[in-house]
Design brief:
Blueprint: H1 3-27, H2 40-70, H3 75-104, H4 111-136, H5 143-168, H6 172-194, H7 200-228
Length: 229
Amino acid sequence: MSGRAVYYLSVYSLLFLAFGILWLFIFFRGAFQGGKALYLTPIGTGAIAFMIALPLQTLLQTYANSLLASMGASMLVTGAVVVLISGFVQEAFKLLAIRINRFATWGKLSWLPLGLAVGLGFGIWEAWRLVAWPFGKSGIWMPLAVIERFSAIGLHIALAFIIAYGSHRSQPWPYFLLAGFWHGAVNFLAILYQGRFIGIWLTEAGIFFMAIAALAVAGWLYRRALVTE
């Protein structure tokens, strides 16, 4: 690997890590109590969750796309199904990662910071896998992809927290459904862009504002949990 590729990979990786830390600082300051090293495992588990979710999601989407195409479904209907698959598969693996870490630590780590840690690992690894690695190794700088990852990392953190909050309240399924549909709605903006219903900047703006809205909801739930505990 060339020195240029290493440089770009490093810049991408540091930027994505900084994005995640920034979102945590703005909306969830002080969430990680105790030794920060305790959260390295759930962060890593979040990354592994993405590695497993991506091929499964792709397989299910390919099958659904072929099935709906054979039925003559419109692009928007097919797109809606495909993005819901991505939303629910990814959020399901976040939920699984959160629960594995909760039980592996014998309940010593709270649901809420576990959700943030898993979401951070999931979002950063997705950014690395989809942007940093393919473009970095080729020495290509993609500003628009970086902007999108800024929003996406925040979204993953927020939705993972919402899922964890549901487990914290012993009501996992309503919050899981909320996260899955929210994730799917964000991804549907890409379908609208591909169908030329909206432009690229409106797409990116929509992703950003929906990520901010998710972070605002998650931040509100976080403050609510602090008050009630």
